[in-house]
TrEMBL record:
Residues 235-381 form the Acyl-CoA dehydrogenase/oxidase C-terminal domain. It comes from Pseudoxanthomonas taiwanensis. This is glutaryl-CoA dehydrogenase (ETF). It comes from the Bacteria. InterPro entries: Acyl-CoA_DH_CS, Acyl-CoA_Oxase/DH_mid-dom, Acyl-CoA_Oxase/DH_mid-dom_sf, AcylCo_DH-like_C, AcylCo_DH/oxidase_C, AcylCoA_DH/ox_N, AcylCoA_DH/ox_N_sf, AcylCoA_DH/oxidase_NM_dom_sf. Transmembrane segments: none annotated.
Length: 387
């Protein structure tokens, strides 16, 4: 019985019937709706906003949140598989779903009031309201505690001043989940589009995540009511809790990108004839392809176990760091290898490898750089903080 080149350890057999159905549904959506247009979107620097209603109708927004809020109520492994299949299309599309689900809907659910949950989550699940997550600042990057954005209490309102950078969905968003320093520590606020003093400026000239909207956010005496403050968390544990949710999905996403690259390299190397034989008939090509399959298999096993731990309620942030570090490094290396195997053809966006390689430059950086996650594991091993 032949093994699937993209699932050598038969991970699929370890999935429940519901998990397999989720993966098949999103894979079909990616094949039929994403892949035919995403190369052109990348070339044009355009996010395919027209796909959002379909994404919402499939239950992919806030998929792990309870059904009572209009969400699908799926488990963590199913959410991971959603991320994997979307990123097999493009990291930009998976980033959109990650931000909406893990960085915007999750904090409203976990840290918001019941009124906030009822007001926002059903419409966000339906794709009627798009969110963005305002944490990173121009000077801050990997050091969110060095936050300069500030919110001060003024009567029954809060007045926010500051700026945020590298914000996915920024110019698409109807609301922003904004984290700001206050006299009582870091707190989160729901800032609605059109609020006076709140502006978003799209970042251009990107060579990565071109099929995604990336923005800078500016807050000039932005007044929001107390009702828009997330009441159930204070301190860095709020935004860091959101990042753990998003990083979990990111451990799965790069697997999809790597599978897309391996698929392309396999097919191309079988068809491309050099010196009288297919490239795939050479030992060097087979060794490289086999190594890609090995890395993908290890990443699949890592994320599946991480998902099972998350569903059991025992997942630790350090485990997420290890998986994000490993799987992003795996995917960026495979994308570059596949680009090389394609020769000159590999530099055009008519093939997927260069697009995934460029996208992975962002994915390996955001939600904690590779170095940050290495230091998280180093601290866990030694008990010494080297940040």
């Amino acid at each position: 019985m032949a093994l699937s080149p993209y699932d050598l350890f038969d991970i699929r057999s370890q999935l429940s019937e519901e998990e397999r159905a989720v993966q098949e549904t999103v894979a079909r959506f990616t094949n039929e709706r994403v892949l035919p247009i995403i190369g052109e979107c990348f070339d044009q620097g355009r996010f395919p906003k027209e796909l959002v209603p379909e994404i919402a109708s499939l239950g992919l927004l806030g998929s792990s949140l309870p059904e009572e809020y209009g969400c699908a109520g799926l488990n963590a492994v199913s959410y991971g598989l959603i991320c994997q299949e979307l990123e097999r299309g493009d990291s930009g599309l998976r980033s959109f779903v990650s931000v909406q689900s893990s960085l915007c809907m999750y904090p409203i659910y976990a840290y918001g009031s019941e009124e906030q949950r009822r007001q926002w989550l059903p419409r966000m699940a339906a794709g009627e309201v798009i969110g963005c997550f305002g944490l990173t600042e121009p000077h801050g990057g990997s050091d969110p505690a060095n936050m300069k954005t500030h919110a001060r209490k003024d009567g029954g309102d809060w007045v926010i001043n500051g700026s945020k950078m590298w914000i996915t969905n920024g110019n698409l968003a109807d609301i922003a989940i904004v984290w700001a320093q206050t006299d009582e520590g870091i707190q989160g606020f729901i800032v609605e589009k059109g609020t006076p003093g709140f502006t978003a400026q799209e970042i251009k000239h990107k060579m990565s995540l071109r099929a995604s909207v990336t923005s800078a956010l500016y807050f000039d005496n932005v007044r929001v009511p107390e009702a828009n403050r997330l009441p159930n968390v204070k301190g860095l544990k709020g935004p860091l809790g959101c990042l753990t949710q998003a990083r979990y999905g990111i451990t799965w996403g790069p697997i999809g990108a790597a599978i897309a690259c391996l698929d392309e390299a396999l097919n191309y190397s079988k068809e491309r004839v050099l010196f009288g034989r297919p490239v795939a008939a050479t030992q060097s090509a087979q060794i490289r392809l086999a190594d890609m399959a090995r890395r993908i298999t290890l990443a699949q096993l890592l994320s599946l176990q991480l998902g099972r731990l998350k569903d059991a309620g025992t997942m630790q942030p350090q485990q997420v760091s290890l998986a994000k570090w490993n799987n992003c490094r795996m995917a960026i290396d495979i994308a570059r290898e596949c680009r090389d195997l394609l020769g000159g053809a590999g530099i055009t966006t008519e093939h997927v490898a260069i697009r995934h390689a460029l996208n992975m430059e962002s994915v390996i950086t955001y939600e904690g750089t590779e170095t940050v996650h290495q230091l998280v594991i180093g601290r866990e091993l030694t008990g010494i903080n080297a940040f």
